Every structure is written in structure tokens, then in C-alpha cells.
Amino acid sequence: MRTSFWRRWRLPLLLLGAFPLTVLLPRMGVINPYIDLVxxxxxxxxxxxxxxxxxxxxxxxxxxGHAGFMAIxxxxxxxxxxxxxxxxxxxxxxxxxxxxxxxxxxxxxxxxAFPSFRTRGxxxxxxxxxxxxxxxxxxENLDVIGGPRGFMGMDKLTTxxxxxxxxxxxxxxxxxxxxxxxxxxxxxxxxxxxASGLVGVNTRQVKVMTFVFSAFLAGIAGGLFAxxxxxxxxxxxxxxxxTDMLVMxxxxxxxxxxxxxxxxxxxxxxxxxxxxxxxxxxxxxEWRLVVAPLLLILLMIYRPQGIMGLxxxxxxxxxxxxxxSPGTRDLSRPGEVGP
Amino acid sequence: MHxxxxxxxxxxxxxxxxxxGACGTSAPSTIRIGLNVELTGGIPVVGExxxxxxxxxxxxVNDAGGLEVGGQTYMLELVVEDDxxxxxxxxxxxxxxxxxxxxxxxGPNASRNAIPAAEVAExxxxxxxxxxxxxxxxxxxxxxxxxKKYVFRAAFIDDFQGVVAAKFAMDELHTQAPAVxxxxxxxxxxxxxxxxxxxxxxxxxxxVAFETYTTGDKDFTAQLTKIIAAGADSLFLPNYYxxxxxxxxxxxxxxxxxxxxxxxxxxNLELISLCGADCEGLYFTTHYAADIATPKAQAFIQAYQAAxxxxxxxxxxxxxxxxxxxxxxxxxxxxxxxEAIREALASITAYEGVTGTMEFRGTGDPIKxxxxxxxxxxxxxxxxxxxx
Amino acid sequence: MQFYxxxxxNALQVGSVYALxxxxxxxxxxxxxxxxxxxxxxxxxxxxxxxxxxxxxxxTAEGLHPVIVFVxxxxxxxxxxxxxxxxxxxxxxxxxxNAPRISAVITALGVGLFLENFMVAFKPVGPAPRFLPxxxxxVNFNVAGVFVSTIQIVIIVVSALxxxxxxxxxxxxxxxxxxRAISWDKFTVPLMGVPVxxxxxxxxxxxxxxxxxxxxxxxxxYTIDPYMGIRIGWWAFISAVVGGIGNxxxxxxxxxxxxxxxxxxxxxxxxxxxxxxxFSLLLVLLIFRPTGILGRPAAQKA
Lengths: 339, 388, 302
Description:
The complex is a heterotrimer. By secondary structure, chain A is mainly alpha-helical. Chain A has twelve helices and four strands. In chain A, helix 1 packs antiparallel against helix 6 (160-179) and helix 2 (33-58) runs antiparallel to helix 9. Chain A starts with a helix and ends in a 9-residue tail after the last strand. Chain B is an alpha/beta fold. In chain B, helix 2 (44-63) packs across helix 11, helix 3 packs parallel to helix 4 and helix 11 crosses helix 12. Chain B is globular, with a radius of gyration of 22 Å. By secondary structure, chain C is mostly helical. Helix content of chain C is 71%, strand content 3%. Chain C is built from ten helices and two strands; from the N terminus they run ααααββαααααα. In chain C, a hairpin with a 2-residue loop joins strand 1 (140-143) and strand 2. In chain C, helix 1 (2-32) runs antiparallel to helix 7 (196-221) and helix 8 runs parallel beside helix 10 (274-288). Chains A and B meet through helix 2, strand 2 and helix 11 of A and helix 1, helix 3 and helix 4 of B.
């Protein structure tokens, strides 16, 4: 039975309609620059969370060093816009820089993919952390890009609408990846790697693809971040950043793109909102950074599945037969996934 | 299994509260001035001194009825942001201030924070005055090498200070085999260390050891052992007050008996309380000395002491001067428009401040004298002046 | 020659502290197969215990013999830190004993972050670096061109003593035997009547009090600040892994290896290469010999 035109195109049209808003609202001053900034950070965090969720949530691996990929993306994109691309063309070629950053980060993703063939669990976690620290350390030792003192000179190319576009691309790509036949292999690795190997899933290929894709997304987010802050240094990309990403993934819920969006949004907004709240209560700002880890601990103890659990928003899953009930779907139930 | 609908609602509410909070932009009768300083992190005393001086400057104006600009009187409002002594947080705080609609930003102090914040300020068209940053890069555009238009400072730059330090080492300390230990992760330390070395070598004195460490390191024994093995007779430590005591102590424990000197990053009394007897007799270059103060400076010192119970250090004095310059510029501009204020700041050719006379020659960098201070009997004592 | 001896002494000093902290990581891993990422921050808190106690002690009772001051501070720091570790274990780790591993790891990261930021926000502590008051007088000796300070000697000697003591506890007491038993087989041991929960708490307490020894010694030589636990914790962790995580003698060996890396890297390379060398060492070891130098080569579970 054919689905109606509206049902099918509802979401894309909605997203398209919102696009002009993201261009105009900041320009007209309806959204004040501070909100603009927060929204941009929300977007960047969404991309980061999705990237990490692919590896930790869907594939069940144990990467805790994703900030390293973000760093690579940030540096490569920045080097391109500052050294290679002439100033005037910077804004036009911005996507090129971002993609280049993502690509190099993706190649770096291979660096973790290979060890993951042999190690799992805690050991892989340590490998990813070591990787993160090594990337940071290498960046610190390259004096030509500023070393520990950082790199700057980027124009502020990250606009709200660029972030919007990239978030949509990231969600779209991730969703298609996960619900494809290939992506099914990702889930199977999480459930039982040996069994999935036995039924014919090429686990190595799946791991490589997922790590590379995930690193690519993190690299894009890094490039966006760099062109927002206009300054990057290796210290922005340590385990502290990776931990932030972990919080967002687990807050939103592993194995759920909607969860990633929610987790990133709630985390970013709450942390920013706390600034104002604490100011109002007269409590010094340092306590803001105490709240986040506290929340994380409580989350892991009392609701480790996060906000969404393993559920997914209906609009993000592939089309089902008409007549299905609205709301979310529980992906952990057998038979729920895919047509 | 319940629907997690309340959570999206919660995030909307949170977003709403953020919007409302951020919507509290200035009532038209106040002038909002941003302060971006190091309140937490490795050098909190610097941020604290800066904030104290800022609050003092603002209070003096407000107590006198406010600032008269273009026929209207305004009260001053300070918007304080903590840069956590981290370069990326300094840039983020500058972004926040730029979007919060302050007329100008004072700070950051440490060059490693001021330089990225200056990029943001320049890009956002927000006038910025760094009280304490001495590294030349703060006021220079990283891409073009031209002077920045919106960034100014109240302190001399290290191209001058490094030379002063080197000349002192040669003429007063009579060093033949100088050594340097500096923080390679921090723009200021690296910059002035390089000027120091260059000046010495231009004058025929070879630097025997040029060792590095990274911010946050606590053990310098490896580098110091190398320095001693190289036969150094003097040690230049252009590092911040929280690290120098350890470096001096460890140097002494490893048997170093040569002269030790520093630069303006030493200028906090906290250095003495952390360092104790190890720092007795040591010298450093800096911006001002409390014991040779002019009448204007005396007034400031007394007011500061009355309010905060201690003698103001150079960061405080420079912050006070930064505010002085800014307020003068705002009045000269006759408006609260950032462009106009920038024009007014750029037009200042000389400013008489607490820290001495500042002469501006077309860039944001003042030409000023430096002083050499010696640490004696647990206090800072004026030793000599070095004129440009 | 003197140069290398001097540097070796420096390395011993630094390595001793890493070894002491590495012991805590290794003991907890041995018994729970859990990496307590908060351990570096527990070490940091221990230095503050030492700071507050010694400041208070020296302010109230003048003219006490330095050895008494030192020992009293040491014992108080050990006690306080042990209590802290047990509280953390009971509140944060115990509920997750049967949860997937990643929950425990993330919770540990969270606890560490919480401790750091709490100490920064908590007014009496704050972010500024501090020196401990002098617990023992610092006297320098010149031994054939090599400079030794009393503090250096105390650090090296006390660490060695503590390590020997710990080795004895683990090998010769009932508690130690129970710890080793649990690390071999977590499921059968309770059937033998061993109070597993109590032994686990005891392990945390013991690991933490040893870290506190490291903390007090560290505080005598360097400044303390709330963020110091990050770097030191990571280096101690690498020490534990390099030596063989779960293996006590391995932790000690690993600590000294890392001490040498820390001191000798700046001798040959710019000091910024330190982290790179240490983490590369970790990575190489994890890929080729994940159980570390002294670890038993265990079969990888799929």
C-alpha cells in the first residue's frame, strides 16, 4: 500500500523549512548571539555523540579516546583554511576543509580498528585512551603548528546553518548505516562477536568501517569546533573531552540516535543553564563542573541505559507498515528492527 | 516502559531558562565592561588581583556618581568571566563576553590566554585591553602579521623586557654561562626566553643550557641537573609564581649556587610565601615597584590596601590603568559604540597611569620603563629602572 | 658519570611515588578486574589530608620532633584516604558489581572528575597550588659530586619499606591470602566462607592508604593542587600496566620504569616528548604483551 506523499516527505520538508530560520534568525537578531553559540555547541555535540555512539553503543566496543579524532579533524581543517585556502574563498571552501579533516580523522580511525581485532573490553579502552594521549602528544611536539601553545587564525566560519546542515547529514548517514544490512553486522558484533563471525559476518570489515566512519564524524565535529572557537590547542582534546562525549552518549542512551540527539542537547543546555542558575543563587561557578560528574555517576548507577534506553524515535527508523502505533519503538525486542 | 516524553520537555524548559537568562541584556543606564581573567587554574592570584583592581576602579567611578558619556551619566557594571588559565577557555570566555554585549573586555592577563582571546576580540570587533600580557603576539594578527585594530595592552612587550633582563644579567650579574629553564607550553615564557637568549648571543655571551618543561610539571630535576652539568653560572626563570618556587628549591637542592633571576611573571607576593628563604636575594624585571610610587600611584596603593588589606601587585596596578585608559576612551568617544571606543583608544598617544607613563605610537603596545626588583627580607624592593 | 648517578637518583625519587600509586591500581584490578580511574584523584585528596593535618599540627604544637610530625601526618593521611576509598567503593562501585564493565569504568572516571572539581570548588582548598609545611628539615649533602637531600632519602626509603610491608601482607597474612584467592577465582571463594565484600573494601582501603603514603611523600617535595591527580594517576596507571596489572611486584617495577622515562626523556629529547614516550610504551605493550612484563600471559577471552 502506498504511503501518502506527506507521510513520506514530512520530515525532510520540515527540516528544509527550518533551514532558512537557521540563517535568518541569528542575522536578524531574533536569537541573540549567546543562544546562537549554545545552539552551535549543541549541534557539534550531537555529531560527536552520534560518532561515539556508533562505536560504543551500536557496536558495543569500548572507545574512550574519541577526542583524538576530533583533534585531528580540528587541526587538519584549520591548517587548510589558514595555510592553504586563500582568505576570500575560506567560507566557500569550508565544507572542503571539514571533509578533509574528517577524512584524515577517518584514516586515523584505522589506528584503533586494527588493535580492536585482538583486544576487547578494558584493554581496548586503554588502547583508545593511549591513542588519544599520543595524538595530543604528537600535536604538542609539532612546533610548526604551534605545539602546546596552540594554533589560531581561523575565521569564524562555523555558522548556525552550517552546523544545522552537518547535523542533518550526520544523522542521516548514521541512520542509514545502522539500518542497512551491513549495519546489522554492527549490532551483531555487540551481541556476540564469535557467533556473528560464525554466521558469516565479516567482523573485521565491519569494525574497520564503523571505526573509520565514527572517526570521520568526530573529525567533522572537530573542524566545526575549531572554526567556532578560532583557536585550538592540544589541551582541548584530552581525556576530559572524551569523558564529556561518554557522558552524552550514556545520558542519551546507547544504540539510539534519538538518544544521542537528546543526550547531547540536554548535556550542553544544562551545563550552560547552570551558569545562569548558579549566578542567580549566588553560588560560585566552580560548582558547575561538580554537577556533571555527579550526574554521570548517578546515571550509571540508577539508569545506565540513559534517557532513551535502546529505544529509537519513530521518525528515525525506516518506514514501517501504515497502521502502526506512533511513538518510540523498542529496538531490543526481536523483530522490531527494519522491514 | 514509560515514554521519555518529559525529558524533551525538560530540555526545552532548560533552553528556555537559558534564553531568559541571556535576555537580561543591559538596561540602558549601565555600561557593561567585561573582565576575562584567571580566577581558577594554575595562577589564581593573578586573576584575583586583577578582579580586585577592576572592582576598585568601578567602585570609584560609581561612588562618584557614575561616568558621564555624551551628556548622559552611566553606572559601570563589571561582567566577570573565568578563563580558568586555559587557552581554550579564554577564547570561549571572550566569545561569551562578545555576545553578551559588553563595550570592551579587560584581560586576560597571561599571554597564553590573552593571545587566543585577542583573536576572538579582533574577529568580533570588541575592544580589548590586556593589563599584563607582554608577549608581542597578543596585538599582532596571526594571519597577516599586521597590528590588530581592537587589541591594546597596558604593559610593555617582551621584545623590550627580554632585552632588559639580558642586559641586567650581563651588566649586574656578570654572567658568562647563562642558562634558561622555561615553559614551552606557554607563549609568554617561550617568547621572553627567546628574546633573552638572542640578546645575549648578539652580545657575544653563549647560553649554555636552554631547557624546557610543560605547564603543570612539578619535577625539574632532570633539566636542572643538565643545566648544572653544563656549568651554568646564572639561571633565568621567566615562569609564573606558582612554579618558580619549586624550580628554585630544586636547583638549590641539586647544588646550584649561581645567580637566579626572573621576569614580570614573578610579580606576586604569593611567590615569596611559597618560596621562602630560597628566593632571598633574587632579582626580576617588572612593571612597577610599590616603594617608588608617584603620588597618583600612592593614592591607588592606599585605596587598594584599605579595600583588600594588601599591597597591590603589578597585575592590579596594570588592571587599574587599563580601566583608566578605557574609561578615558569611552568619554572621549562620547558613545558606547564599540567602534567609537576603539577609535578613541587608538587615538591615545600618552597615558599617565599608576604604573608610569605609557606612550603609544600607532599600535596597541605602550612604550614604558621597566623596573628591576630584588627580593630582600621577604619583600619586594626596588633596585633599578630600565628606560626604553 | 656523576650526571647519570644524579639523574638515576632523581628517577628513583619520582619512580617511588609512581610505584606506590600503581600498587593501588593493581590491587583493585587484581581483585575486581576493574580499573579504578579515580585512584589518581584519591592520591590527590590524600595530599590534602596531609596538608591540612600537618598545618594544623604545626600550628598548635610547637617544637615537636620532625619524625613525630612526619609519622603522625603519614598515619592520618593513610587513615583518611582509606576511609574515603571505602566510602567511594560502597557508594559508587558496589552497586555496579554485576553491571557491564563499561558502567564501572565510566563511574570511576566520573568519581575522579567529581573529586577534582569538588576540591577546586570547595573553598578551603581551591585551585591554587600549595606547599606542605616542612615536615622534616631539608638538608642537602654532597656525596662525591652527587647531591642528595634528606627529603629524597626519606622518599626512597619509606617507599621501599612500604612496598616490602605490602608484599609481606599480601603473602603472609590471612587477609592477603583472601585477596589473592579472590583475584584467582571470584566465584568459588565466597563458597569457602571468605567475606568477599569485606575483603574488597579492605583492598580498596589498603591501596588507598599506600597511595596516601605516596601523597605525603610527594607533598614533601612538590606543590599540591586539585588537578595533579590527572597526570600522576595516568603515569601510575601506565606503570601498573607496564609491570603487569594485577601483579604487585609488577606495579613496583613499572613505577620505576616510568620514573626513568620521566627523568631520562628530557636528557635526550625535548621535555615535551615525555607523554609521547610513556603512552607509546603503553600502546606497544598493550599490543604485544598486554599482561605486562611480570604478568602471567593469560588467554584473551573473546
